[in-house]
Structures are given as C-alpha cells and as structure tokens.
Amino acid sequence: MSGSLLEVKGLKMHFPVHGGLFYRQVATVYAVDGVSFDVRPGETVGLVGESGCGKSTLGKAILRLYDPTDGQVFFEGRDLAHVHGKELRMLRRDLGIIFQDPYESLNQTHTVGFILEEPFRIHCVGTPEERRAWAKDLLKKVGLPESAFERFPHEFSGGQRQRIGIARAIALKPKLVVCDEPVSALDVSIQSQILNLLLDLQKEMGLAFVFIAHDLAVVKHVSDRIAVMYLGKVVEFSDADELHHKPLHPYTQALLASIPEPDPSKSVEEKPFLEGEVPSPRNPPAGCRFHTRCPFAQPRCRTDIPELKAGPGVAPEHLVACHYAGELKPKS
Amino acid sequence: MSRFRLDPLTRKKFARFARIRRGYWSAVILAAAIGLSFFSEVFVNSRALVVRYQGRWYFPTYGAVIPGKTFGLDYEYETNYRRLKAELAAKSGSDFVLLAPAPYNAYENDLQEGIYPPTAPSFADGHYLGTDTSGRDVLARLVYGFRTAIIFSLLLLMCNYTVGISIGCAMGYFGGLFDLLFQRLIEVWSNVPFLYVIIIVASIMVPNFFSLVFIMMFFGWMGMTWYMRTVTYKQREREYVLAARALGASDAYIIFRHILPNTISVIVTFIPFSVSGGIVALTSLDYLGFGLPPPTPSWGELLRQGTNHLDASWIVLSVVLSMIVLLTMVTFVGEAIREAFDPRRHTVYE
Ligand SMILES: Nc1ncnc2c1ncn2[C@@H]1O[C@H](COP(=O)(O)OP(=O)(O)OP(=O)(O)O)[C@@H](O)[C@H]1O
Ligand code: SF4
Ligand SMILES: [Mg+2]
Predict the structure, then answer these.
(1) 0.90 surpassed by complex ipTM
(2) Where are the alpha helices (DSSP H) in A46-205?
(3) CATH code of the region A6-229
(4) B-chain residues within 8 Å CB-CB of A109?
(5) CB-CB: which of B7, B242, B253 is closest to A108?
C-alpha cells in the first residue's frame, strides 16, 4: 500500500519452549502468527484483543525488540525485521515505545533528568548542556515541573511516571510510537488526562500511533483505524467508525456488544456473548482460530483458514477474516 | 553533579545497613583494621620511629637502611634500635630512641643466649604475644600476616569478580550457544579438585604472591558467574532495558549503563563471603605448606607451628583467636549487608 509509514506483512513471532533433560524444544508459542496491517503517517491504528492474544508481542516484534520468526516490517520502505547493528539503531530514532507499566519501564536507579537525556546520549546528539535543556523542554511538554529533573521515578505517581515514559518516547521526534496499553495500569480518573496528552502530542508532532489496548471502548475514541486480534491473528481491520457500525467478524461483534451500552432500550439478554476459554497459543485450533467459540461456526471453519480480505458490502478497505462474513445474521 | 547522586533506594539500603549495629560496627572496625594494616610499619617494627642522635633527627620507619655506623656503632648493617635505645639511655644525654609500640619485625629471630624459642609472652622483652619456634615475634607475624591475607583476598576477589562478572553477564545477556557452552565448561571446571591442583602446582614450582592469586583465580572465577548470569538474564527482560534498546542503545550501553548498575546490590552481598573465603583458602594452603613461600608471615604457617607445639599455647591461641574474631566480624558484615540489601528474602529488621 503506497502512502504507508509502516507496513507489516505476514509477521510471525513464535517462541520456542524448551524443557526436559536436554533442553530440547518441547513446544512452540504461536504468539503472533501471520499479521498484516499498515499505518499511515500521523494516524492512530488501534490494536485490540483479549489478554494473551499477542498484542504486546506484535508491538515488540514491530520495533524489533524481538527477532521475528517470519515476515516483514517495512518502515518507510526499509524492512525493520532484517536490518542489523548500526542501521537498525539509526532507524530507531524514528520509532518509540510507551509501556503499560511506567514503574517497570523506568530504571529506578536513574534520575528523571538522566532518563530524559538518555535518547540524546545514546545517539550522541548535543552537548551536555543542550541535552539538559532539551530534557527540561520535554518535561514541560508532558506537563511536569522542571523540578522533576533531579528526582527519581519512584517519587512520582503512576500518571506522572507515565508522562516521563511518554517524554522519553518522543524525545527524538519519532514518526511512529507504539503505545502498549499506556493507560490501563492507571487510575480511571487519570486515564483521560494521559490519553489527551498523547492526542495533543500527536497533533503537535504529527506522530503516528499503534495504540494497543484490550478494551475496545478506549481504542474506539483514539483510533482512526482499528485492527482486532484474536490468538495471534488479525481478524478484522477497518476504519474505526465503520468497524463500530458494521462489524463483520463475529469476534468483533462480541467485543462491541460487551461494551456497556448507554442505550437503555436494548435489553441485556439480546447481546451475544463469548462462551468458553481462549485456547492456548501453544496449540491454536486448526482452521479458523475462533471456531471453538464462534456461535456461527460451520464444519468448514474447522479445516480452512479464513484469509484477511475485503469484506462483502462494506468499504474496500474494510478487511475481515471470516468465511461467512456478511452472511451472518446480526443479532439485534 | 546531580546525575551521579546515589538513588534513594540504594541510600535506603545503606541506611538500613547502618542500623544493623553489629554488622555496621564490624564493618567500621574491619575497615579501620585494614586501613591501619597498611601502616603496620609504624606500630610493629624493629626500626625506631624517631631517633635523636647528636643533635640530628632520624625517622628510620620508612626509607633506606641506616647503618649502625651512623649512630657511632661498630657495624655497617642495619642498626639494632632496641640495643641503641638501651645504650643511649645509659649515656643519659639528650639523645634518645623512640621505638615502635611493638619493637620487632616479622622476620628477625630474636635469639638470646641460653634461651630457646618459643618464648612465652613477656612485656619486658616487648614480645607481647611471645615468640614462635624460630624466635620471631608472634604479634609481628600476626599483624603482617593479616595484611598479607587481606591484600591477597581482596586482590583475588577483584580478579575473580572481573572474570566472573564479565563472563556471567555475557552468558545472561547474549544467551544462546555461548551461554550453553560456558554452562557446560563451568560445570566441568567447578569439578576440578582445585586444592589438589594447587598442591601439584606448588610442588613443581614455589608460588609467589601473584602466581598464587593467579592460580586461585584460575579455579575460582566460576562462583560469581551463576549469580551474574541469573540477574543479568532477569534484568535483560525488564522493560526499562527494552525501552533503552527501542531508543537505539547498543549492547555495551545497555550492559554498562543499565544492567551492571542494577546488579551491584547482588555483587555487594557476596563480597564479605568472598573475602572470608579467600582468607580461609590462603590460610589452609599455608597451613599445609603449599601457600606463600617462607618466611612470608602468614596465619596458616603460625597455625601449623601452633598445632605442632601445643605446649607453646600462646602461638596457637593468638592465631586461632585472631582467626575467629576476624571471620566472625566478616560474617557479621556479610549478614548485615544481605539483610539490608535484600530484605524480602530474609527476616524483617526494624
Ligand atoms: N518471551 C516469550 N516466551 C514465550 N512465550 C511468550 C513470550 N512472550 C509472550 N509469550 C506468550 O505469547 C502470548 C502473547 O503474549 P502477549 O504478551 O503478546 O499478549 P498480550 O496480548 O499483550 O496480552 P496482555 O493484554 O495480557 O498484555 C502469551 O500466551 C504469552 O504467554
Ligand atoms: S470463519 Fe467460521 S468460525 Fe471463524 S469467525 Fe467465521 S464463522 Fe466463525
Ligand atoms: Mg500486553
């Protein structure tokens, strides 16, 4: 797709599980198993799915924090999955990541100033004085007082720490930032503050976001487009509004239905809900991975893997991976 | 600069350590003892501290040998200050000699006619702990032996840790085949009965101080690798390391700026035990006669003399008591550090 900042093609991330007497590989975790999507400059792509479906793994594999098993990750035409050493490190100036747990992602032994100067130090840009000034600018940008510079991460609240993490991620003026559930560890009252900060920064700096969340409600508000993941695969990828109004995949429909509806006329019983456990990514079901829980599953679903392709009767960029997309009777 | 300020968590650990009294005071006393042992020449020495002779001042403690002729004696070799003191005192002029508190060095045989060593402690002679079987002052041997043992075990510790930390860190950080190869190598290497190897080596060539450190390091670096491997492996997966890598940090940057500083608490916890281990190892080698070549003052050699001459109980008592006091204090420090640095794994103080 032309005009994409990031294009992920058939990305796979399998983790070998070793065990036994001779440290043999005894199993494989198919955490991410053939994911394709793209991100355009300055847009937000939401990535939703239940816990354990491989969202974080996908985010990390995109940024090459893991070496992907297979597939390509084109960032401005360069394949991130296959560059090495210095070239990779230089490309990383244009990429950023914000983690879920701001306590874990900040080194407790460093001052906030040291942490915020780090991006510049790593890339040897600026003099020590300049770095100091830039770090203080960053503090201002994320709404922290300059006095934070001398202090240590654990002296701050969760929301403030997340601001520090955000400041570090945008320090080098990246083009793409992966936000891995940036607000789900925070108090509800602070979540919207942090989300607004991210949106403001996006507007100001023209950032593109890959916004990971397990909660479709959060993603809906911030995303231009949404990719829904289930067990290591993208099952539906579409414009956010379109996805909201015309969900094609039964899994997306179930996720949408589970969002508390402000409309009281719909009764609770009508909502389809998901039954059963999420199967283990060590041993994903054959065929459509959702067939063990899909209320519409047919015999074919157990054997044939549905491809992610344009859905019937919707916008051409609305992709879905279901054999019976569009033929299903919406349950309402 | 503020960026090198100790972070509050580390400061808290040190504060907690200071609150564990017996560990803290043991550390203070040990540090003082080690510090003072570098100036042992001032306290335990056959050379005088100050000599005033015919209007001139002499400070023989450090520096070249002052021959007896300088003080009007009839010999060219080093002045015997104890005798000089007696002579000058007899003349009752303004000349005098100020001896060190214990006026013997660790090598001289203080043999007197008609008296056969070992001699019992005597304040009149200045042999506060008596003499050993060749008439050497036990206190002097003890003090200089302490210095040898401490320097030996600190040097050994530095060598062991440098090698062990580097290899362990690399194993944990890079993992894979490198890790696997070294794991097997270390397992094999740890099973070499190293005391026997040293005994064999020592019977072929007499080791000196540095070759002994080297041999012991050769078989002793493995201890640290396991711990370093584990902590590095844990740290490597932490999100703050991933964050640094996502920013474009190199492996070297990550190891030196992030991982090593975060493993310091673990390393510090092991230091006291390594120190006492080093002292015990050197003492046992010396005891067996495979350690430092004689006449180097050493506790192991004193211990052997003492156990061979139990009738001269002052020898064995001096060295055994010193050993007990030293090792107990080191253990107190070690316990306190472990307690202060890793309160989760042990009982709660406060
Ligand atoms: N390094 C690893 N080695 C082995 N398995 C892993 C590894 N990392 C993740 N997994 C497994 O891959 C699967 C996907 O994990 P991932 O963390 O990507 O899920 P997630 O969608 O981010 O979930 P959450 O919402 O809980 O963060 C999980 O089953 C997890 O156990
Ligand atoms: S392919 Fe079959 S099992 Fe999978 S979502 Fe569609 S209907 Fe359900
Ligand atoms: Mg996650």
Answers:
(1) no
(2) 55-62, 85-91, 112-122, 128-141, 158-170, 188-205
(3) 3.40.50.300
(4) 7, 9-10, 261-262
(5) B7
